[in-house]
Request: fold
Amino acid sequence: MSLLLMMDTTGGAGSGTGRVAAANNSNLPYIFSTAANWCHHGATTHVTGPEAVTEMELFFLNGMMVVNGEVDAYYDFTIRSSVFYNGVFYPAYSALNPAARDISVAKNWGLARFKVPGLSIPPATRFIVYNRRVANDSATAQANVSAITNANPCVVTCTGHSFLAGQQVQFDSVGGTTQLNYSTNGNTIYTVANPTANTFELRNAANTVNINSTAYGVYTSGGTASRQYNVITNTSGIRARQDGIINATSSVNDFTLGVGLAYGARAGTPVISSGGVASCPVAAAGQGYLSGISMGAWYGAAGAGGAGATMPGSGASGFGTPTAGAITSITPTSPGTGQSSGNPPMITLGGGGSGNCFGIGDQATYGPCLISGKTAGAKKGLILLGDSNDAGYSAADGTGDLNGSHGVLEQKLAGTRGIWKLCRAGESAAGWNSNNTRQLALIDAVAATGVQIGDVIVGFGTNDFNSGSNLATVEAQLTTVINTIKGKGAKKVFIRTLPPFTTSSDAFTTTANQTAGNTAYGAGGDVLTFNSRLRSSTGIANDGILDVAIQVADGTTAWKWRVAGTFPLGAASATAFSDDGVHYNKAAGIPYAVNNLDVSALA
Reply:
């Protein structure tokens, strides 16, 4: 089900330091937009491991994982990134060109590597990574205008342009035909139609009617046509980021690249009243904001991600209002509950949460596939390779925890290890063995930067048994996985047990009304035998197990989901551990296992 590569961060014998997987990450991409003309903005939450991190590097992948497969993305893209920590934005620069903010990444599993100079983050501390990606579906983002017709449709001449049909453009500084200029036409943009090497026709933004320029002014000179983009965010609605990564007035259109136009606004320490955010001062007004921006509260952060924070009843939200481009006021519209003046939330302007552990469609959260750095003691990091349970998928686990962690293993270990997560829903040991070339190449590419592979935790199996494989076949496939990873330099190998798979007639609130999902998962089935052989050290050779199954399975009927226990979130004893019979849920299954899982084998 899952495979964890513990990254050896000793940096070689006698070195004492090395590069580590320094924080939890955002998993491998799943689905990018299939449409042209997109610009995607992501904001993902992360937490450092057990030691302070310096020389941070961010890795972003342009490729897609599908069930038991590795495929190209739809477009090359250009990406830039920054890190928000303790009220300050730290720009990221190309690791290969320290002066460059933007990196172009090929769609065939290209990898962007950024360095974040001047940033040091304490242990077990939250921070946010922002990114902006623009699809490279046109070689030219801007072209000079040399002629415009007075006709229906209007035809524009831009010699050597590379605009494609369906892309959108705005015009600036056009002489004569001033009706096209963005600054004087009510911020109107146009759709490119019937492009040739040097010309293109204009249609309206909705691409429904031609632009009739018969009555427009006669073109005289000058002007530029610039690409405009469909804005894709990792949550719905308008987003604006403090460093100008986002400067949008619409979640669909009207995006201006404008990096550097909007930046610098910062909230102060909020006033807490009756457990909610009553008000919040503006610590720095910033400049260049064209519209209001969202306010988000990161509970217990105390301005620097203080340890020991707990989830409040609900988080606070609101908005910041600009005057002449500066944020002059912050208004909480939902104060939230459970906030504490002793450990107040860190307020961010522009907000953004961790989003889905792996996204689907245009609302997919996208973030760094690995965050590495240096630590004083070179603590080992983890690479998690698994299926939907390890990615953190369930009906209720879309947003993860406050640290941006998803699933049992990441939530248990984040803050104690840096975690590199390579997960895919539906993945099996057999599928991984047949489709791992690009993932192994990715591991090689990261190792070439100084991060070395150490130990391994393997847990594939659920989807193998669900596809009809028997015990001998599953164990043979897992042995192949182990041997492949050992070939990459892995040392010790650990294995995770497999949870139940049942159906239920009462939403999994009792054991009596659960039925095995298939014969492999019933009484005396192969899955129980598989787990038993791991526990007795008679199954696959390993150096220890993580027994997740014993935490989420019923203590008497081990092939059924648990429905009783003491829950860390105070849930009733009859709360279900699964919502669908396959995945641990957020209400009880994940928190119970996180609270009770024995990970001493990793020591």
